[in-house]
Amino acid sequence: MSSYSAETPAPRPPRPARLVLMLIAALAVLFAAGFLLVRPVEIVVDGRDVRVPTGTKVGELVGLGVVEAPPGDLLALDGSVEATAEGSPPVLELNGRSVAAEVRLFAGDRIVSSPGADIREGLATTESAIPFKTVYRGRGPWLEIATLGVPGVRRLTVGERSGIIARVETITPVIDEVVVRTRPRPGAKLVALTFDDGPTPGQTDRVLDILKQEKVHATFFMLGRRIKEDPKLARRAVAEGHLIGNHSYNHPDLRELDDGAVAKQVTATRDKIRGVAGSGSAWFRPPYGAVDPRVLKTLRKMDQNVVMWDVDPQDWRKPGVKALVSRVVSQTEPGSVILLHDGGGDRRRTIAALPYIIRELKKQGYVFVTVAELAAYPRDGVASGTQTSTPPDGYGQ
């Protein structure tokens, strides 16, 4: 048998083993590459050696907290600091020159920082209404709006963070509301007696007796609920030549009611007056004399003439008879409207004083008329020098 002299080749590993070896080699390569990618880069920031991740950009150094220089502040319009460190970021130079924030850093780079600049806050603009004032003029018993108030428009420029006002501009000027109180000038000594809060049994009938005896006419501002309870007294007043005025239904402060509720107070009482007088009344006296421009506008829309007074002896405080007579007589002048009460409490002193008031004024030449008769005469307009920023005395009491 002949011998075989050639070398026998080494046996190859099995196929699964070769695959494992190839996978280990690939992982080793990937590991080496990843190590190179994440290996920190050594740079110098403000004279200090700093390590940052590979691929770090100049603009990212501030966020990494390795920069010593601070950012600037946010300043208010007046120059005060509104917010610390909300200004411009620190200024960074790379290797002695300014570069964009997107430039990547490499080993050995040198960064020098300087403080960021302060910035001033921006401006914000808003528009708002300028409320109008109500100006009261005159001191007579007739009350009406002479000029309707119109709000103005103001443009305000302020610091958007601080709110400090930079500029105020009036876009539309405001028109103040003017409420006037005028007095009739009849050219004769005419005066109107008025009674509030009735009709009241035992009081209104006694007042009517006195008026009949003295042969004078008056105006009764009645409450709707009282007319409902005692319609006969109201009918008697009408039959004897007196005027019935509207004093609301149940005597609320109209300023505390919305427009709809004010209207109901007027219409409910007007219906009661129509039931006893045959027609509603165009004459209105607000309870307590308490009105404001809003209420006046509502009353004007309802064709109500608002009648106040200019002689008030304050009989509701129950002064003595002599004091009542003296107060009325001393305050009365031609065209005056006298306020008395026939309801709302014990009015015995008022009733006792009434004959003396009438007789004393008659002695002085006065003639008694209703407010409707007095209103037929021209009124004096607004007296000079009587403008006020609040209602005249007695208004709203």
Low-confidence stretches: 1-6, 31-36, 382-397
Any idea what the radius of gyration is? 47 Å
Helicity level = 25-40%
Number of strands: 21
Give the rounded overall mean pLDDT.
89
| Global geometry | rod-shaped
In the CATH scheme, what's the topology name of the largest domain? TIM Barrel
Can you describe what's shown?
The protein has three domains: 38-120, Ubiquitin-like (UB roll) (Roll); 123-138 and 149-177; 184-375, Glycoside hydrolase/deacetylase (TIM Barrel), CATH 3.20.20.370. Helix content is 29%, strand content 24%. The radius of gyration is 47 Å and the shape is rod-shaped. A hairpin with a 2-residue loop joins strand 5 and strand 6. It has a five-stranded mixed beta sheet with strand order 2-1-7-5-6, with no helix packed on it. It has a five-stranded mixed beta sheet with strand order 10-14-11-19-18. 31% of the residues are buried. It is of the alpha/beta class and 397 residues long.
Helix-strand layout with pairing:
Blueprint: H1 15-38, E1 41-45, E2 48-52, H2 61-64, E3 74-75, E4 81-83, E5 91-94, E6 97-98, E7 110-114, E8 119-120, E9 123-130, E10 134-137, E11 142-147, E12 152-159, E13 165-172, E14 177-182, E15 190-196, H3 204-214, E16 219-222, H4 224-229, H5 231-239, E17 243-246, H6 259-277, E18 283-284, H7 293-301, E19 305-307, H8 321-331, E20 336-341, H9 348-363, E21 367-369, H10 371-375
Parallel strand pairs: 1-7, 3-8, 10-14, 15-16, 15-20, 15-21, 16-17, 18-19
Antiparallel strand pairs: 1-2, 3-4, 5-6, 5-7, 9-12, 11-14, 11-19, 12-13
Helix pairs in contact: 3-9, 6-7, 8-9
